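ARCHIVE RECORD
Type: protein–small molecule complex
Small molecule: 3-methyl-2-oxobutanoic acid
Source of inputs: curated submission
Record status: active
Notes field left blank by submitter.
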Amino acid sequence: MTRKIAIFDTTLRDGEQSPGASMNTEEKLVIAQELIRMHVDVIEAGFPISSPGDFKSVQEIGRLAGDDCVVCGLTRAVDKDIDRAAEALKTAKRPRIHTGLGVSPQHLAEKLRITEDECIERAIHCVKYAKQYVDDVEFYAEDAGRADQDFLIRVIQAAVDAGATVVNIPDTTGYNMPDDFGARIKSLSDNVRGIENVTISVHTHNDLGMATALALAGVKNGATQVECTINGLGERAGNTALEEVVMALKMHGDELDGHTDIVTQELTRASHLVSRITGMNVQANKAIVGANAFAHSSGIHQDGVLKARDTYEIINPEDVGAAGSEIILSARSGHAALKHRLAELGYTFAPEEFDDIYQRFLEIADQKKEVYDEDLESMVQERDRDIKAVYTLDALQVSCGDPLVPTATATIMDEAGEKHVVCATGTGPVDAAYKAIDMVVSMHGDLQEFVVKAVTRGIDAIGEVTVRIQSESGKIYTGRGADNDIVVSSAKAYVNAINRMIQTARANEGK
Ligand code: KIV
Ligand code: ZN
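STRUCTURE (tokenized, with ligand):
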């Protein structure tokens, strides 16, 4: 039997650090639910001291996870951070505090302005301080990839002696070559006393496009936990992609001496979910979860695959949940068929909620011949996003063309249930719709990016619009909207971004 490699998912912490990928607590809970369904071992749910929203997310995810997985909160090596993380993690049955500080010459001299000995003292202190609250303490040696190796051994020895249960060796800047990083992990395994009783974790970034290779080199040399994110989201070029590590371990488990407990059939759905919620589209040629990952276009390849799939495919698409559904859903489908398919996709609803879902399904089915899984996922996630909306787009009518002046009439409901009917003109139908919305909403944002994408198949596809708006404080908010009519999608996306901006402002005011 190979070693169990723990999957530590940091989509909700490092992943959320991708510019524009911020999520509210409800959205994080939807992703956490999917991570639990996928059987990740650890969810890093946030950085509790960084904002009231992060604090609440760690609290709520702790409550949600129960015994299913470890829930972790990040801190700096600072007492008040650790106090705050411990408070947020009180709801968790299996809490972990993740604390640490920079250890490279750059971090010591330029960021922290401390000596090596002071760094070691702080490492010992933060681990011991966190241990007062929880048994499970993970110590991170930030920028270990560029640290002096003898010093790294001393810091890790100090953290282990102070009681760390996990030591995280990040290549924070994605600087290393895989062999060098592997050698660093091996030298820790060989030289730190007691390390055999501690989990070695690797946390690598993708600045040179080698995050997965680095993580696997770590595993080969003694690491038994990998920190990763869905779709490789994360700071700058991102983190190691969870789906890549998991599938590499599945295909090469013997040489790597490792396996994971991940339900690989969930990988595609998790990827779609995270992409939809964060507004970060996945490149079509992305390994494992990209739209083209199992598409064969050249005649020679198609011929080969039709004769035997393994001529050009090393992974069976079904193993990552990429296979299509056999059940054809349409306006003629009843409750049972819809319920069955939604349950297969992992969505279950209370009977009183299901009626609303079925009505939404019929509205889509009325406009389309066939309702695909992507339509259903889009519909359910759209509904999740609507919950607790400050403003909801009730109706939109636009007139445009040549030589008409583009004009939009929008009906918007506010959270008090008041209906606002407004009309505006603009340079085009979307501009007119946005100007009409601006007449009602209490906060405004500058439009920075506008992307339209067909998320389902066919001419009657659902068009999904992602917008990014910038608040007065400079923060970016993503909004998404889906509909068969792309002007309606655009308006929904804009209202969604404004709702997020307002919800974040409220959360930060502690309302
Ligand atoms: O990249 C990094 O070093 C990190 C740490 C905070 C673990 O994200
Ligand atoms: Zn990181």
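CURATOR ANNOTATION: Residues 14, 140, 142, 168, 170, 172, 203, 205 surround 3-methyl-2-oxobutanoic acid (ligand 1) (CB under 6 Å).
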